Amino acid sequence: MRTTDGQATLALLATLGFTERLLVRDEEDPEIIVHAEFALGETGGIMFGSVRNDGSALDNVGGSSIYVVVDTEREVDRLYQEIVDMGHAIVRPVATQPHGGREFDFRDHDGNSWGVGSYRGA
Fold it and tell me: How many CA atoms lie less than 13 Å away from 87 in the CB half-sphere?
């Protein structure tokens, strides 16, 4: 995933419970994230970096779709309020789903689509 605002992405990942595994910043401009790896629990994770502004595929932002599974429905509700407070665009408000669990969808500052829910799949 690519981002135009590394600090905003770091704040979002922290809010969602991700922890830093590796964070490499540009030596000349520390606002630029060359490569980052963040974990979610024992098996989840995401890698991202800042756009390169070089006309390559590394300039593409906003096309990612991520689903984050959390432990409880209460955690879904808490995160929903935090995401609203952060000002992200809510695409689908928090609700209990017919297939089980609670979830909501939002778009981040780069236009990436995020889902957060307690449903772990069948």
Answer: 4
- Whole domain around residue 59: which residue ranges? 2-117
How many whole angstroms separate alpha carbon 89 and alpha carbon 107? Answer: 5
**CATH code of the domain covering residue 28:** 3.10.180.10
Cα(93)–Cα(54) distance, integer angstroms:
37
Global pTM reads 0.87
What's phi and psi for 106, nearest 5 deg? -150, 165
Per-residue model confidence as pLDDT tens digits over 61-85: 888 899 999 999 999 999 999 999 9
For residue 122, tell me if it sits in a domain. Answer: no
